[in-house]
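To whoever is covering the structure queue this week,

Two jobs came back overnight. Logging them here so there's a record in the thread.

Job A:
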Amino acid sequence: MATSKGSVRIIGGTHRGRRLQFTDHGGDLRPSGDRMRETLFNWLQHAGLYERRVLDLFAGSGVLGAEALSRGAAHALLVEKKRERAADLSRQLTPLFDDRIHIQCADALAWLQRGAPATPFDLVFIDPPYDLGLAGAACAALEAPGWLSEGALVYVESRRHDAAPAAPASWVLEKEKESGDVRARLYRYR
């Protein structure tokens, strides 16, 4: 099992420039790069992040959820399967965001099967390890009633050369970009 150390920085908002340290337990962590995150948050800027409830499935380094909170989201729930990573996220992000962030150590797909929350999410990030084929299943699970608010935005990142994960019919593709090995898509739930 490979272990490497790295860091990623928050690129906007109140914590702009803050570096998040992570240890890659297993060697499968692939944080979204600065350029793709800049594109994503430019897309989201027009929809507004202020007071949004965010779900970051497959949280990894936690940078997508942290970036949303730094830019004004009300609350973020980060789901991370690996216990060591979840502990790293809690250790670093709780002091920055206090009660606006919650880290859930769980398998994202199993966690989604437990049932929708009392209050639906306004923004969801789906950026799983590419080789596991989890994005399509996560999209399908979010189609169950109660997960998404009306007009919610869902960001799905996948490998560019693979078939794009199937999105539910109620999701409208708003934005799409390919860069290097990455395909990024932003959907709106109708």
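Job B:
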Amino acid sequence: MNFFRRKTYTAGPPEYLIVGLGNPGKKYELTRHNAGFLCLDLLAMKNDVKIDRLKFNALIGEVSLDGKRCLLVKPQTFMNNSGEAVRDIAKFYKIPPENIIVIFDDISLDCGKLRIRRKGTDGGHNGIKSIIYHMQSDKFPRIKLGIGAKAHPEQPLADWVLSVMKKDDLAQLREASDKACDAVPLMINGDIDKAMNLFNS
């Protein structure tokens, strides 16, 4: 421990939610569907905070990014019901959809690619579908992390997204997650266009 390093927190209620999507439990930890969880863990590590408080059916951590108080949120409701936790937290802290950044996996992007969007449809992603339903809005910014298309066309989608990533895939996801961590402060400061220009691939 560095006793000379002072951790600073921003006073007042949280202004932003940064939500990583995934499934709780050890067996899902390194699966493709948990890209959002893994990215949020990296963001927490880079800022020397922990995501370890269980509240509103989610694991929550608190961080100050560029002077803005943010909650790091990992819903524990399993992917298909992610919106329940997001809705409850947003309602309690009175956080509008525009101030909720969601990080999740995307099969339409090659592994290691990243795409930032200001808003949009669910694109067939059940976690995003749940958030749109419970928030009654699709106007929340999101960061999509590529996990690649199914290895075989006949493979069930659930089997693919719940498969454990290989070492090379994890390394590529780490690179994309590093970029996502750099993009988040820009996004909470209203520079989404700049973040898209810098990091979309």
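Note for Job B: The first strand starts at residue 16 and ends at 20.

Please reply-all if you pick these up so we don't duplicate work.
Q.
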